[in-house]
Specification:
By secondary structure, this protein is mostly helical. Helices cover about 80% and strands about 0% of the residues. The chain has 15 helices and no strands.
Length: about 230
């Protein structure tokens, strides 16, 4: 199926751009907190099975989004390379930190089963507002992921690999979700980026092996002598 490592990276990058945002969209649909009480200590107790499933989906969605962002850097090698080298690692770090925050879900679920909703919320707030948690996992890392992916997509557009609407859709979807309460509106806002990133993924899957390899610096360097000799 794969001729070499370059072919594998092309297919893997394309699949990740489709699967990662899709997992996130499915997670928000399954999350009991999307449709029920905004306090997770309560909503997670309403359906413990779905609460655990959505946590796992979010966890893997964010890890795979980090890898998908790494794949986007490849198509920015010829143009917007410096931009990609700056924005890309920040986006990757943001998504890895978002994944780490998912470990708070089972803690909140346990607290909700052993304390009143008010007491569970109070304890959880004290835990997640510790400086080590805030600055180690939340700030500014959350923003690097949520706002960073649309910014990275701008670089992909400037590199000539994406249409102008792709960074716009990502900005509306992921950026807009920060200005509405977590709920049914989030389903829509996190659903539309699936089409944008999926379009990039499909384009990668349709690329030939030669097109993918042409983005490597060695490919352009090797072509230079021929151009000079001509």
């Amino acid at each position: 199926m794969f001729k070499d490592s370059a072919d594998f990276r092309r297919v893997a990058s394309g699949v990740l751009l489709i699967v990662a945002p899709l997992l996130q969209a499915i997670a928000v649909i399954l999350d009991p907190g999307t449709w029920g009480d905004e306090r997770e200590a309560v909503s997670f107790g309403d359906d413990p099975v779905l609460a655990q499933v959505q946590s796992v989906l979010y966890h893997w969605a964010y890890l795979l989004m980090a890898l998908a962002a790494l794949g986007l850097l490849h198509v920015m090698r010829r143009r917007a390379a410096v931009f990609g080298h700056i924005a890309g690692p920040l986006v990757i770090l943001g998504y890895i930190n978002l994944s780490g925050l998912l470990m708070a879900d089972p803690v909140e679920w346990w607290l909700g089963r052993h304390h009143s909703p008010e007491e569970a919320t109070r304890i959880m707030d004290e835990m997640v507002n510790l400086p080590g948690v805030v600055f180690g996992f939340q700030m500014p890392w959350i923003f690097f992921a949520i706002f960073g992916m649309p910014v990275l997509a701008v670089g992909v557009w400037r590199a000539g690999f994406a249409h102008w609407w792709i960074p716009l859709v990502l900005a509306v979807g992921y950026g807009g979700s920060m200005f509405v309460g977590y709920g049914p509106a989030t389903v829509v806002l996190w659903g539309i980026p699936v089409a944008a990133l999926g379009a990039l993924g499909v384009r990668m899957l349709r690329m030939s092996r030669e097109e993918w390899i042409s983005y490597y610096p060695a490919a352009s360097t090797a072509a230079a002598p021929a151009g000079v000799g001509a």
